[in-house]
Structure formats: structure tokens, C-alpha cells
Design brief:
Radius of gyration of chain A: 14 Å
Strand order of the largest sheet of chain A: 2-3-9-4-7
Helix content of chain A: under 10%
Number of helices of chain A: 0
Oligomer: homodimer
Largest sheet of chain A: 5 strands, antiparallel
Strand content of chain A: over 45%
């Protein structure tokens, strides 16, 4: 049985991105972060919408307009395609476990 | 901030299904179960694929071929369209919190 909370041991010093489900239009990923952040001058500018939930840990996501969103375990966000954002900080202990869904998720 | 672990209080005696994201092709739901099960003679026979993760509680899913899968928090399953299954049991305490993704998730 696959379990989202089961982490590799020891954790490597880099962010781990694992694809759990993938089709041409759609992707589910587990991301494990341990203190990593998007470099201050960089933004994620994604082609697809993303629905993301933080399942363990604490993190802060910031947006180009200056908004900052502090996340605790269970908090979820819908980030529209091309909504520029970055991960400002992620907790090391406990490690952050994210579940991210990429696809066409917003009605046009 | 929306949080998947935040439950209504008091919980009603029925299963709660909330749609978090919905487009024509795709749906994300939170389901809260407190002891409910699919009636013994019924099967879910779904038009779409489903990726489902149990985020809290314990549950058992059974399949038409006799397989039974016991789930603890964090376990996830991909159920292909028309793969007949039922929820055999769900824990009351803690309540089961499921995250279910419905869409075209399996490559053909």
C-alpha cells in the first residue's frame, strides 16, 4: 500500500518531487520539502492550474502582488495558471509533505 | 484559509460529500465518513477514474473480485472507471477524511 506520510529515510538535502499519477493533461505529485524555498528573485509561472494541499509541516507561499499565505497541515490553495507565486519558506521538522494536482482545474 | 482537517461540529449522522473543485471533466471532493458503509449488495461503478486518499481514520475498501484493502491515514488508491468497489467499513473515531479526485486519470 502506498502511503503519502511514509518518507524515505534518511531524507536527502534536496526537495523531492514524485509523480503519483500522470496523463497528458493531468498530474498528481507528492513533494517533500525540508527548508527549501524558491530563490527570492524567482517565480513559478505555470502553464496549468494547480490545487495544492500541505499535509504535514508549515510553509509560506507568496504572490507577485505581495500577498503572503501561511499554511499549516491541511490547508489548501487553488493557484490559477500564470498566477505567479513562490514558496517563501518550508519547515524542516516536521518535513513539509505537499500533494499537488496540476491540470485544467478552473472553469474558463 | 480552507483546511481539510477542520470538521463541522457536531458531525451529522450521515456521510458528508463536499466538492472543492469542479470543472466539466474533473472533480475534487472531501468526504467525511463516520461509520457509514456501502450497502452489502451495492457497488460503486463509476464512469470516471478516481484517485482517493484517506487522510484520517481507518477504512476498508473491497472489490468485486474479493480483494479487500485496509486503509490507514495516508494510504491512497487509484480506482479505474468501472472497477466495481465498495466501502466496507469506516471508522467513527476518528472520523474518516477522504480526498477524492475524479477524472480521466488512467492512460488509455
Amino acid at each position: 500500500m502506498n502511503n503519502i506520510f511514509q518518507l524515505p529515510f534518511p531524507l536527502p538535502p534536496i526537495e523531492i518531487v514524485e509523480t503519483l499519477v500522470k496523463t497528458e493533461q493531468f498530474r498528481i505529485e507528492r513533494i517533500i520539502s525540508t527548508g527549501q524555498a524558491t530563490p527570492p528573485d524567482q517565480w513559478y509561472d505555470q502553464v496549468q492550474d494547480e490545487w495544492v494541499i500541505l499535509l504535514q509541516g508549515q510553509a509560506t507561499v507568496s504572490y507577485e502582488d505581495g500577498r503572503e499565505v501561511a499554511l499549516i497541515a491541511g490547508d489548501y490553495l487553488l493557484i490559477a495558471a500564470h498566477e505567479k507565486h513562490r514558496v517563501k519558506e518550508t519547515s524542516v521538522d516536521p518535513p513539509c509533505i505537499w500533494l499537488a494536482i496540476h491540470g485544467s482545474l478552473v472553469k474558463n
